Structures are given as structure tokens and as C-alpha cells.
Fold this sequence. Notes:
This protein has helices at about 10-20, 40-50, 90-100; strands spanning about 1-5, 50-60, 60-70, 75-80. It is of the alpha+beta class.
Amino acid sequence: MIRQCTDDDVPTIEQIVNQAAARYHGVIPADCWHEPYMDCAHLLAEIGAGVEFWGWQDGDSVAGVMGLQQVRDATLIRHAYVRPEYQGKGIGTTVVLTLRS
């Protein structure tokens, strides 16, 4: 199930972003890499700037997240991350297709 994330999901979103990004350490350019990749302050700043997160709910757990941000007359898809153990199962594709519609 895909659902809009709430303030209660912020720690989970932060965890998913950092778990997923860790798989690409060494691929993400060094000047773009931070440890952690996205800390809570940065995540809250993104939310404050209008990024609305949506999550793929798998039972009691959120398996992946993606953000939408309205900028002028365009809606941007931002911050697409899936927990490593769920990657390659079509979750990201399903979420992006759902959010595009």
C-alpha cells in the first residue's frame, strides 16, 4: 500500500534514506557524500521546503519512500529510496508510477 507519510514517519524516512544511500557509497560522488547521507535536520529542511513524502507500506514497516515537491508549475519527484532488502522488487517503480498519476 502507498500512503502519505506523517510527522511520525520522519525517523523511518531518515533511516530508509541512509540505508539505501549506503549501498551507493563510492558511486555517489565524494563531494556529494555526507555521513550520514541525510541527517534529520536536512530531512526536516526538505519537508519544510515543501517535499511531501509518500511511503510503500509493507505490513507494519515502510519499505520505501519518495518525495513530491511543487515548484512553480511543476511537480518534482524527489528523494526516492528503498530499503536495501526490498530493492529490485519493483517498489520504486510502483511508487513513482502511482505518484505520477
